[in-house]
Structures are given as structure tokens and as C-alpha cells.
């Protein structure tokens, strides 16, 4: 018998992008963990986790250096008490991954890994998971994971509709975490015009507004802003403005 299922909705990252950009700019005083909890609810998922990894000197493995996660305190305590970090397949696989990977890919015959996932499930981590590797312009490497309790069919549809948005969101989460952790950034040198255009964009001016203010063509404004965005390794203009201010590439006082 045919059973009609309500189509899975496509998520919007507008609200999440605003929350994360406010965090990057320092406008949002809320702890990043609490921000991620709110975002998870907004996009219909259980949890979001951010894991920063560093190469383990003398081996080909990576070690966990930073974790910002929304999992329950009981699971966090159990994770570290049982030293799950040593067998966590998300860390093992994620340290070498380039593309997003579903946790179903991590299926293992290893009883310890099977027990780890079973334990995670009983502690509310979620029955589905996807992890997205992120490498930023600081040379840092991280893995952002999203978990859910959708059915397998619903989860496949959710991923298909929203994977690009989840990837963009992961980049913003990495930037917010980097600012939150006060990591140093390599210097980015903008030209005078790039800086002027970015400052006006950060003030909320449109490309046409900036063209008239600086008395340059619309095409030139777009070219300067695109170049500045690429130098900052940002996914869009809003992200570029936030990162430029947060890292001092353009002075915050210039926005007053």
C-alpha cells in the first residue's frame, strides 16, 4: 500500500548566518555552544559539533585540540571518561577527509567502534550524522558534524536538499570558532580601493551606492569586492565583511 510522506523541507541558513556573523563581529555575547544549539533547533537537527584537529607529530594521525559541541553533559563526561577520542571514527576518518562524509560510511567490524556508536545513540547523539571537513586560511583543519533522528529515508532526502547549505554553514561556524578562540590570522593586505569598497559594504551600502560614493564604475566595485573576498578566503560578501572587521583587516572604528 502506498503511504504518502510529507516532503522534507529545504532549510534556510539566513538566520544561522546572521547569528554566526554577529558572533564573528562580536555583536552576539551568547556562548558559541548556545548559538549552535539554537541553530540546530532552527534547521531541524539534534546536534552540531565543531572539532579542531592538529597533526600528531611523529605519526600520520591527528589529535583533537578543540571541541565546541552541543551534546549532553552526560555524553561529554562519558566520552572523555572512556577515552573515546582514541577510537572515535569521525576523528580518524575526518582527519584525512576532503569531502563531506555520512557516518554510515564509518561502519566497522571493530566491536569497540560498534559499541561506541551504540553508546552515543543511547546518550542522545542521534541516529544519523554527517561530517564536513573545513580548512581555513589560517591553515587550521576542523570537522563540523550535524546529527539527526530522521528515518534513513528522510535523512537521505534532507542531505540531498541541504548539503550545500550545511557546507556553507560549516565555514561560518569555523570562522566563528576561530574568532572565539582568538586565533591569529596571517596578514591580509587589501589595496586602498578594496578596503574602501569593503568598508562601505560593511556599512550596508549596495554595489550601486559604493559606485556613486567612490565615483567608480559598478563593475569596478564588484571586481574590488570579489578580490577582497578571495583574499579573505570567505564564502560571500557578508562573511568577508565580518571576518575583515573581526581580524582587524579593516578597523572597526571605520564603521561608525
The tally of structural domains comes to 2
The sequence of SSEs as H and E is HHEEHHEHEEHHHHH
- Oligomeric status of the shown chains? single chain
The profile of the biggest β sheet is: 5 strands, antiparallel
CATH domain class name of the largest domain: Alpha Beta
- Supply the CATH superfamily name of the largest domain: Transcription factor LuxR-like, autoinducer-binding domain
CATH architecture of the largest domain: 2-Layer Sandwich
What overall form do the CA principal axes indicate? elongated
Our count of helices gives: 10
The neighbouring-strand order within the major sheet is 2-1-5-4-3
- Structural class, from helix and strand content? alpha+beta
Rg calculated over all Cα atoms: 20 Å
- The end-to-end span amounts to 64 Å
Instruction: Report mean pLDDT, rounded to a whole number.
Output: 82
Q: Roughly how much helix do the residues carry, as a percent range?
A: 40-55%
CATH T-level topology of the largest domain = Beta-Lactamase
- DSSP, total strands: 5
The fraction of residues in strands falls at 5-15%
User: Which spans have pLDDT < 50 for at least 5 consecutive residues?
Assistant: 1-5
Amino acid at each position: 500500500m502506498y503511504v504518502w510522506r510529507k516532503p522534507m523541507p529545504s532549510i534556510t541558513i539566513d538566520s544561522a548566518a546572521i547569528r554566526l556573523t554577529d558572533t564573528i563581529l562580536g555583536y552576539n555575547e551568547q556562548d558559541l555552544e548556545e548559538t549552535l544549539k539554537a541553530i540546530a533547533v532552527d534547521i531541524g537537527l539534534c546536534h552540531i559539533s565543531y572539532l579542531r584537529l592538529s597533526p600528531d607529530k611523529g605519526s600520520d594521525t591527528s589529535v583533537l585540540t578543540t571541541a565546541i559541541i552541543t551534546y549532553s553533559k552526560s555524553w561529554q563526561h562519558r566520552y572523555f571518561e572512556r577515552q573515546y577520542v582514541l577510537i572515535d571514527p569521525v576523528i580518524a576518518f575526518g582527519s584525512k577527509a576532503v569531502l563531506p562524509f555520512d557516518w554510515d560510511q564509518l561502519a566497522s567490524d571493530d566491536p569497540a567502534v560498534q559499541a561506541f556508536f551504540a553508546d552515543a545513540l543511547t546518550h542522545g547523539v542521534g541516529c544519523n550524522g554527517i561530517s564536513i571537513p573545513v580548512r581555513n586560511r589560517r591553515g587550521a583543519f576542523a570537522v563540523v558534524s550535524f546529527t539527526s533522528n530522521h528515518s534513513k529515508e528522510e535523512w537521505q532526502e534532507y542531505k540531498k536538499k541541504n548539503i550545500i547549505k550545511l557546507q556553507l554553514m560549516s565555514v561560518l561556524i569555523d570562522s566563528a570558532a576561530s574568532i572565539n578562540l582568538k586565533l591569529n590570522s596571517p596578514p591580509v593586505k587589501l589595496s586602498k580601493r578594496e578596503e574602501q569598497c569593503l568598508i562601505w559594504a560593511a556599512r550596508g551600502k549596495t554595489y550601486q551606492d559604493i559606485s556613486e560614493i567612490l565615483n567608480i564604475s559598478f563593475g569596478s566595485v564588484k571586481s574590488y569586492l570579489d578580490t577582497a573576498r578571495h583574499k579573505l578566503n570567505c564564502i560571500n560578501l557578508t562573511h568577508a565583511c565580518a571576518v575583515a572587521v573581526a581580524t582587524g583587516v579593516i578597523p572597526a572604528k571605520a564603521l561608525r
